[in-house]
Amino acid sequence: MLFKLALSGLKSRFKDYLVLFSGLIVTSAIFYMFLSLSTNPEFLKQNTTISIIGVVFIIGDILLALITLVYIIYANSFLLSMRQRDYGLFMMLGAKSSKIGNLIFVETLFLGILATVVGLVIGVFATQGVANLLISNLSLSINGFIGFHMPAILWTMAFFFVLFLFAALFNRIKLSVIPILSLLKSNEKPVKYRRNPVLIFAQFILGLIALIVGYYAMNNIMILKTDGFWLALIGVVVGTFLLFKSIFGVVIDILRQSNRVKYRNLNNFTINQIKFRITEYTRILTVVSILFAMAVGAITVSLSMRTLTFTNSENLAYYDTAIYSEKDSVKKAVAKLPIEDETTFHYKVEGSTIYALSDELNTLPMKMKTPDNKVTSYSGDSSKNSVNDLITSAYNNLHPKNELFASSKDVNYQYVNRSTFNTIPVTQHSVQLIKTVGGIRENLSSLNALNQLQNATPSLGLDVMTQAQVGGQVINYYQLFNSTYSGFQFMGIFLGVAFLTMLASILIFKILSGAHQDKKRYEMLDKIGTRRSVMTRSIAKELAVLFVLPALVGLTHMLFGLKLFQVTMIPQIYGTVVVPVTIFLTLYFLYYLLTFFIYRSIVLRKRK
Amino acid sequence: MTNNQIVKVQNINKIYGKRNEKKYQALKDIDFSVQKGEFIGIMGASGSGKTTLLNMLSTLDKPTSGHIYINEQDITQLKKNQMADFRGREIGFIFQDFNLLENLSCRENIALPLSLQNVSSKEIKPKVQKIATKLGISQILDKYPSEISGGQKQRVAASRALVHEPSILFGDEPTGALDSKSAKELLNTMQQLNEEDAVSILMVTHDAAAASYAQRILFIKDGEIHRELKRGQNSRSDFYQEIIQTLGTYEQ
Ligand SMILES: Nc1ncnc2c1ncn2[C@@H]1O[C@H](COP(=O)(O)OP(=O)(O)OP(=O)(O)O)[C@@H](O)[C@H]1O
Ligand SMILES: [Mg+2]
């Protein structure tokens, strides 16, 4: 009977349960996504070259576990607040508190396990989906990554099971300890927070010290090594929390004490909305700022890796690609390329002699990049040698193995004038060097495709020099670097997306979980004659606090955190930070608008 | 319509229930007017439509048909913002279920209508203090609604309805949760406002003693005005007797 009653309570707040449930699903899905990388040592080994990545992932595991913990605590208090009144009512009508305790225990555990299982299924598909998307869109070369990874599944299940078990126990105990009257009135209680100035000051100082230690550790990672990571983790998390805790309350109090601010429009209401949820806010602001930092950080690192791959390859050669194949499909593809600059050399091969045109050698410029990234042309002997090498390797790529020149030393090069060239009775070949408009950044996929069409894999047994000439254009270097850095790029964006989803989910959850209560408050405000626009402004302000503060703090964390990558992998990382941050902030702002509209549509009822 | 009428209700009907739901007619052809400075009591059995009527008058809900003029303005035709401003400036409403914001202290709750009108913070404090003293709640101003009694809540709600000196006051059983002494204080305050500041009052009540403060009483039965009593030159106690008798005839 009691069970039926409980179930009907569940039905009546179906929407709230949906919010809660989907929040939990997202959390476990993201947790799995992260673990699918971090518990996959083979993948990490194959796709990264840098040893610190192991530590980075352990730190990541811990941070994510912390964030999940906060999320679950929060979700649980939401669940409890939904149920308290119902269960209080049952108890008042005579239900035994032990029975009620069992009920909430089962309910919590069941909800948690169901959410975890559904989350895992979604997590597996999301992991595979995001991976496929990234690999094909960014032309990354990734080995050994699939969505389904058993250790990650087991870890996620274990972690969530333990969390929900504790949550269920906690709820059980709580329901049997709290007096019925407070259960019944649980939603109306104001949060009394007595502020002890000494304590707050101590929190502030401690927080500041922790943060400084954290930042210092990230700045001196080369000296501190692994210890530095731990210091950074603890320092930043503890520092953020304590600073938010101390400063936030003080600011709210200062606002509350200023009559001018307070007694204007709905300011007082807005301030109190926040003050009432201040413990919740402190935790959420901390978590959101850390997630913010991790998400922007991961995406920035990934994008700088990508930029690095591009600039490094661009610095090594002038031409984007060399065309030597005579296939029709290749010709068609070349015709579609936007060509900025090109040079074509013609040649014929008879026995071990290669004939080329002397006027082409003398008049056609073959351009190259200097070590300081300037464009010059080959001249004199080096010009001749490079054309020799180019033609040899072009020829080698065109022909079956047994006809190849093993090395440029085996070849006799003859530069003849055009009329002599024409009399040589073999087919003429050519090799065309192309620089495209926009280079590899704009034409990456067509250049890659062209390479595949030409089948440009350098044959075995050639000396390095010859290989480098045909294979030595920008696109070839790009492929080389890309295979080295793909792992990082992939992880960066993959995790960036995961953290971003988690961030979005926490924010929307926070907002929706209060909507039920807020709706009543806004109805009352409406009754006493508050204009809709005034209420809208109040909502916008309340949400802005939730979005802006963590963004500021998160950005600061991120800027200090990039130092880790600057000294270990990507020296020019700070140069590439603007684009990802701008993109991220734009998305973030759009998300703010979205949550704002969703929230407003829930709490402000439409009037005819 | 003469200029002396502050409220004119013309044939309003209210039918609850949306298109596919069961219909219920809560008000039937209600038609009456209120003179400026009049104190009107509204009585009737539970479920007879009193709250519904007040909701129409205070723009919280719209009648299904009919018109309501307040200060010669048809409030059934107001736009959303005008309605909000009308509620915020012209009227005070003491709700049956208080409608206090539990995340604001009593002082802040009372100050809200003033804040919304951008009254300067310097003026707000004394105004809140004055009305709170009048209603005997100055001791509890810094408590939160969950920490005070039902009667105290009602007085806070009344203070909030009166603090901005509205030209019409609607009360939905404003004395319902009060002991006779506090009830008397609130009623005296209302009467004082009515006599000195010419605030028009419409008050729903089940209590004959409270109703006797009014100059005229409308009896509502099944959504219709069934009867009207006028105090005229009678003393309050005579009027009280008359109300009791009328209520008696209702019960038969
Ligand atoms: N939102 C609504 N939807 C449908 N029916 C309603 C609604 N509000 C009120 N009613 C019905 O309209 C009738 C009048 O309700 P109203 O609240 O006006 O009564 P009342 O006279 O204020 O009663 P009480 O003295 O108990 O407060 C009742 O039968 C009630 O059930
Ligand atoms: Mg009523």
TrEMBL record, chain A:
CC terms in the record's Gene Ontology section: plasma membrane
Pfam families, per the entry: FtsX (PF02687)
Statement: the UniProt record of this protein carries the keyword Transmembrane helix: yes
The UniProt record lists the keyword Transmembrane helix: yes
Top-level division of the source organism's lineage: Bacteria
UniProt keyword list: Cell membrane, Membrane, Transmembrane, Transmembrane helix, Transport
Subcellular location as annotated: Cell membrane
TM ranges: 17-38, 50-79, 100-126, 146-170, 198-217, 229-255, 284-305, 490-512, 543-565, 577-599
Alphabetical list of InterPro entries matching this protein: ABC-4_Integral_Memb_Prot, ABC3_permease_C, ABC_permease_BceB-typ
Domain ABC3 transporter permease C-terminal: 62-175
A GO BP entry: transmembrane transport
Membrane topology of the entry: Multi-pass membrane protein
Protein family per UniProt: Belongs to the ABC-4 integral membrane protein family.
Name by which UniProt lists this protein: Abc-type antimicrobial peptide transport system, permease component
Organism: Holzapfeliella floricola DSM 23037 = JCM 16512
Automatic annotation (TrEMBL), chain B:
Residue span(s) of domain ABC transporter: 7-247
GO molecular function: ATP binding; ATP hydrolysis activity; transmembrane transporter activity
Gene Ontology CC annotations of this record: membrane protein complex; plasma membrane
Cited InterPro entries: AAA+_ATPase, ABC_transporter-like_ATP-bd, ABC_transpr_LolD-like, MacB-like_ATP-bd, P-loop_NTPase
Alphabetical keyword list: Amino-acid transport, ATP-binding, Nucleotide-binding, Transport
Biological process terms in GO annotation: amino acid transport
Protein name as it appears in the record: ABC transporter ATPase component
